[in-house]
Amino acid sequence: MLHATEHAHLPTAELDTALRGGPFHVALRAAIAARGLPLQRVQHHLSRHGVKVGVTSLSYWQQGARRPQRPESLRAVRALEEILQLPDESLIRLLAEVDERAVTGRPAGRSYRSLIEASDVLDRLRAELGWSLDGGLHTLGHHECVRIGARRELASREAHHIVRAHRDGVDRFVAVHHGDPGCRPRDIRVRALENCRTGRVRWDRETGVLVAELLFGTRLRSGDTFLFRYGIEDGTSGPSREYLHRFSFPGGQYALQVRFDATALPARCHRFTQHSAAAPRSGRHELPVSGPHHCVHVVEPRIRPSIVGIAWEWE
User: In which domain of life is the source organism classified (predicted)?
Assistant: First the structure.
């Protein structure tokens, strides 16, 4: 909190613009200027939040000479949002969006804003289908295979789930597909492949989110396991640059494979993780496109609430 002698200035047009579009260092500089705080006072307020950051680091951050990356620095950014009276995650969002650009020199495939908007839409669509929380199922295993077509588009994907019911009466699963920007959800097809059939389907055109019921044809008892498989036929958008999966609950193994058409091979691929949509990407590791099958993969032995994905670059 600010002392009574440190009256917050009214947000300026420059601050509003910077918070909407960034970049991070411009927004931070505008926020500090709008509050009329010298860096020494900002440092003092951070120390009261239990975060130690030097004045020199703060100066570098607002000049764009350095970028907060370490866990302690990211704690400082979240504390700055409170100290500078900014909307929650307004600075950390800009930092997350710039993270991929700083590493690759190219914009991230999915921005924080698009992920949050999709999350809000997803909650609404799930509610329309009467699906809440985890639907009474724990994930024991989840394997996905994504196919990128000759036009560099997300052509299709197939998912194989192994689940265990933790309450009686579970008889369905709600699958989620988030198409690439510009996709046409109404033209995307859901295929029930094994131990299920397709029920109701809902979509949102603006975000490209589609949800579909997969009906088991039986009611599980608590403790029962179940295996099912389904596919998504997409191919309705332009060039794809990444595929990611967002996990809200812990679970078992997750494996993601991306297979590229032989006529459309990427220049580079890498895996990444994010603690949340607002967090910078981390865990970057290069993935060579292998052999005659032209594919890359990642395996997570145990799912944690996070985002896991693979990104690639085209020449």
Answer: Bacteria
